[in-house]
Specification:
heterodimer; A: 2 domains; 7 helices; 77% helix; 0% strand; elongated; B: alpha+beta; Arc Repressor Mutant, subunit A; 17% strand; WH-like_DNA-bd_sf (chain B); DNA-binding (chain B); DNA-binding transcriptional regulator, PadR family (chain B); DNA binding (chain B); Tscrpt_reg_PadR_N (chain B)
């Protein structure tokens, strides 16, 4: 016995309405529930709706608990990937070279425009995040959304430390400090973009039904 | 089950051992296999199984493969190379633990 497309859609909609929003989490839950419901239908000779109701009465709480736990694990995966990309040899080379080039050839002096550049890296990363990933998707994926949260957090921390529109004093007076921040944000933005593309590729490969 | 708490600390090792034997498995299959092997003594709940699987995946011990089955997608888990090595270590640890427990609760009895 198999479940129809409508039955699967019914389970998917039910889980979505139960606040399991991310497609990657829900896909696994849908398969779990569908297989369990099929077992119930076979063993107890029930209709789909009766088997589904019987299963959900007992297991809904567990399924929702699983959804909460998943967010923590996803954060861990995203941060680990971000760190890996950040310390990748090429990224470190780019950061080191940009630091020395800046120190050597572009001392801040009166060129106040330079202080906007690190801010620009983060803006570019956020734009790429929204344009390339979110605008193309109708579905929500946990890793991509959690990565977005991490980027916004970094952006806010940078704004507190040094917002080029409001704060003239902290970075602009110190070439070395500015160059370090410049190099780190360049590396972080590049790592973030690489992670988002990597996650996007992974989800496209895993969750596209051909 | 009253004694499920005793199994709780070994859940990751149980999952790794099953995957080592079967190659690749999906979530529901794991719950059913455990139920079958323990003759219904241990029932792994969704709330325990999936966080454990996701944690093992995050640690790089499991790899994921998604396949279309009937009208839905199914996520299969399999051991990575690191996972295979870790399974050997964790099984050795578990055996050592069982031996120690046996010595503690029943010094005269032995599994050997």
């Amino acid at each position: 016995m198999n479940l129809t497309k409508e039955d699967i859609q019914f389970i998917d909609t039910y889980l979505k309405n139960s606040d399991i929003m991310f497609t990657d989490v829900r896909t696994e839950m849908v398969d779990h529930v569908a297989t369990a419901v099929l077992d119930e239908m076979d063993s107890k000779n029930l209709t789909f709706y009766d088997a589904f109701k019987a299963y959900m009465v007992v297991h809904k709480k567990e399924l929702l608990q699983c959804n909460k736990q998943f967010k923590k694990t996803t954060d861990k995966i995203v941060l680990k990937s971000l760190f890996k990309k950040f310390i990748a040899p090429l990224n470190i080379c780019v950061m080191v070279v940009s630091f020395f080039l800046l120190i050597q050839f572009f001392p801040l002096g009166d060129k106040k425009i330079l202080k906007f550049i690190p801010f620009g890296f983060l803006i570019i990363a956020i734009l790429i995040y929204y344009i390339v990933v979110l605008k193309k998707r109708k579905q929500r994926f946990s890793g991509i959304e959690r990565a977005g949260c991490i980027l916004i957090l970094i952006f806010q921390v940078y704004n507190i430390i040094q917002n080029p529109f409001f704060n003239d004093k902290i970075i602009i007076t110190n070439d070395y400090f500015f160059s370090i921040v410049f190099a780190l944000l360049l590396g972080l933005s590049a790592a973030f973009i690489a992670v988002v593309f990597q996650l996007n590729k992974k989800y496209t490969n895993h969750y596209t039904i051909v | 089950m009253g004694n499920s708490k005793l199994y709780k600390g070994s859940l990751n090792t149980i999952i790794l051992k099953l995957l080592e034997e079967k190659g690749k498995m999906y979530g529901y299959e794991i719950t059913q296999k455990v139920k079958e092997l323990t003759k219904g003594e241990l029932k792994i709940t969704e709330g325990a199984l999936y966080p454990a699987l996701h944690k093992l995946e995050a640690e790089g011990l499991l790899d994921v493969e998604v396949a279309k089955v009937d009208n839905r997608l199914r996520k299969y888990y399999k051991l990575t190379e690191a996972g295979e090595k870790e399974t050997v270590n964790r099984l050795a640890e578990l055996e050592e633990f069982i031996r120690s427990m046996q010595n503690l609760v029943n010094p005269k009895w032995s599994i050997e």
